[in-house]
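Dear support,

I submitted the protein below through the web form. The confirmation email said the job was done, but the results page showed an empty box. After a refresh the structure appeared. I'm attaching both so you can tell me whether what I see now is the final result or a partial one.
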Amino acid sequence: MSKLLPISAIIPTRDRPLPLKRMLSSLGKQSVQPVEAIIIDGSSNEETTKLCQTSIPNLDTKLIYHKATEIGAAIQRNQAMAYANEEAILFLDDDIIFEPDCLKRLWTALQNNPHLGGVNAMITNQKYSPPGPISRFLFPFLHGKLETSYAGKCIGPAFNLLPEDRPDLPAVVEVEWLNTTCTLYRREALPEHLFDPLLTRYRLMEDLTLSLKVGKNWQLANARTARIFHDSQPGDHKNNPTILGKMELINRHYIMTQILERNTWWDYVKLTVFQLWQIAAVCWHNFSAVGPTLMGKLAAIKEIIFPL
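What the results page shows now:
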């Protein structure tokens, strides 16, 4: 039997019983496990309900199942917090696979530093890449200064970069933001309301917003040796370039102005340059998506100028 830790795991899911089962089976192989896992299910059928009523091999964590009252990862996490009982909150996506001792290393990192508000796992298949030829000029422009590495930073108009995985780095590396893919927070570090209403409406960068809020009063870190694989599943907003383009600009503008309080005309210049860079990248990788992306951006600009 695995040792149970005073952790409430929060898992939003929707119509993905097979990835969820695989994730729970992976959790059952961990050397330590959360006391409870709160599953907020937005599925259109009963397959996930049935899964949560079955026994998962070696999973000692108590599964607490609730139907979602509203759909969306951020708003489902908000709902889950009402059922969480423990002193630490573990945000998990339903499509990850743990490597051995991942949760133990996250817990150890949090316990070893009383100033640490949250720590996330290293996603082995989503890693930081050093700036390319164009980015070498773009990143210092957005950031306002040159850095030897931008890994784990949030620069300019709320542009967040992945943490770095190098063997010469320590096991726990301080960063400026955290994801919600596999992240352990002290409950006392979290805001009363996890995710803002705007970010429950437009599901993008809610993890950045939450961690930046926590980071105002607490340190944040990436536990490089606590590792997961993220088998990212498709979603409607991921497949629709118009929706994605609109979400991205509205949410980034919100984070830039309301969370980071970057409101000067120069900040808006940086946001404009960043958006042009993104559109150029779309043009390079998928020219057919340029038109829909531009439509999304224009819709976002309209909503920013004339809020709903």
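Response: this is the final, complete result; the empty box was a page-load delay. The mean pLDDT is 93.
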